Amino acid sequence: MEHYINIVDLLGRAGRLNDACVFIENMAIAPDRGIWLSLLSACRVHQNVELGELAAHNLFKMEPTRGSNYIQLLNLYVEAGLKEKAANLRTMMRQKGLTKLPGCSWIEVKNKVDVFFSGDSSSPRTVKIYETLDSLRNSMKRKECDCEADLKLLVRALLKIGFNGLVNCCMLKKSYERF
């Protein structure tokens, strides 16, 4: 199945969404979640609402209670400027009690794994984390630095190991590379 998903993904990335649909229709095996999700993702990138709805409908049939499938279609609607369709889908999701689980990241520091959830502010060091994050952002803006790290995760990691201050973005980057 993985090879089929790769072909749908490649066709989708190339903007050949109709070819991807024809490929799916002619597959020797029934398409699974990965196939339809790949097509829906490509439809979102290329804002093809009609094929996106087809892919989403198939996902909904397979997994009617998986909120992340609905979020993909919702994002397509929003990005295509279809506010009414987006609002209707949100209402339907609420009525069905569907939600998307928050994003999660983890980091290992000194052989201990810490897990962080999107929007989590339960850490006793939340205020310090956000103060440090703001300081990093300001420093990066002043130095026009292009750091690729997830800053929130990085700040938490630096605080966790007792790294209390950052002199500049280069030091930040060196600290990140040590992980």
UniProtKB/TrEMBL annotation:
InterPro entries: E_motif (IPR046848), PPR_At4g14850-like_plant (IPR046960), TPR-like_helical_dom_sf (IPR011990). Pfam families: E_motif. One of its GO terms (biological process) is RNA modification. One of its GO terms (molecular function) is RNA binding. It comes from the Eukaryota. PANTHER family: PENTATRICOPEPTIDE REPEAT-CONTAINING PROTEIN. This is Pentatricopeptide repeat-containing protein.
